[in-house]
Amino acid sequence: MLDPDAWVPIAEVARPHGVRGELRLKLFNSASDVLLTIPEVLVRLPDGTEHEVSVDKARRADSAILIKLFSVDDRDRAEEIRGALVCVRRRDFPELDGDEFYACDVEGARAWLGEQEIGVVIEVLTYPSAQALLIRGEDGDREVPLVDAYVTKVDPAAGRVELASLEGVEPFKPKRPKAAASVRG
């Protein structure tokens, strides 16, 4: 399970909103309201620099959130942080019920099929019709549908995912960028 003090990206700055420095955020989970209740966030800029910033105010706007951060007072400054990730501490996430889990808590968990460890969960993928666990093993990656027929138990606290089957789930090699062609003079 992720350290409670870890910063977790939950939104991206989509664009400025208005002329007074307000930002329109694209939420990774459109139902999340956590940004409406916390006093500070971490802003991770596209160049990798990070800044802890106080939240002046935040409000819901359809499936987005509009947020005003301390020291972002005009449209130009808001434009400078377009594309930045907005992060909150893991401890600020709402409690979950029963067998629910947060993707950030299962990433890094070991995946087991019976007594055989088959790999590590590297990502939870969301598709329109279902979710899947991207599991990296020695023989490649697998997208395992997150349904009872394939996944019997997800235990983030133990860092363990138990699988019922891999029938029809073939490993594949991740696509790598093509190397630049050499040029002879």
Which structural traits does this protein have?
single chain; 185 residues; mainly beta; Elongation Factor Tu (Ef-tu), domain 3; SH3 type barrels; 2 domains; six-stranded antiparallel β-barrel; six-stranded mixed beta sheet; 2 helices; 12 strands; 5% helix; 44% strand; disordered C terminus
> Mean of the pLDDT scores?
90
Within the largest sheet, what's the order of strands?
Answer: 1-2-5-4-3-6
Question: In CATH, what is the homologous superfamily of the largest domain?
Answer: RimM
Count of structural domains: 2
Oligomer: single chain
> What fraction, in percent, of the residue positions are helical?
under 10%
Structure at a glance:
With about 180 residues, the chain is mostly beta strands. The protein has helices at about 75-80, 105; strands at about 5-15, 20-25, 40-45, 50-60, 65-70, 85-90, 110-115, 115-125, 130-135, 140-145, 150-155, 160-165.
How would you characterize the overall build of this protein?
This protein is mostly beta strands and 185 residues long. It folds into 2 domains: 7-92, Elongation Factor Tu (Ef-tu), domain 3; 103-163, PRC-barrel domain (SH3 type barrels). It is built from 2 helices and 12 strands, in the order βββββαβαββββββ. It has helices at residues 75-80, 103-106, and strands at 7-17, 22-27, 40-44, 50-61, 64-69, 85-89, 110-113, 116-126, 131-137, 140-145, 151-155, 160-163. Strand 3 and strand 4 (50-61) form a beta hairpin. The relative contact order is 0.15. The model is unreliable at 178-185 (pLDDT under 50).
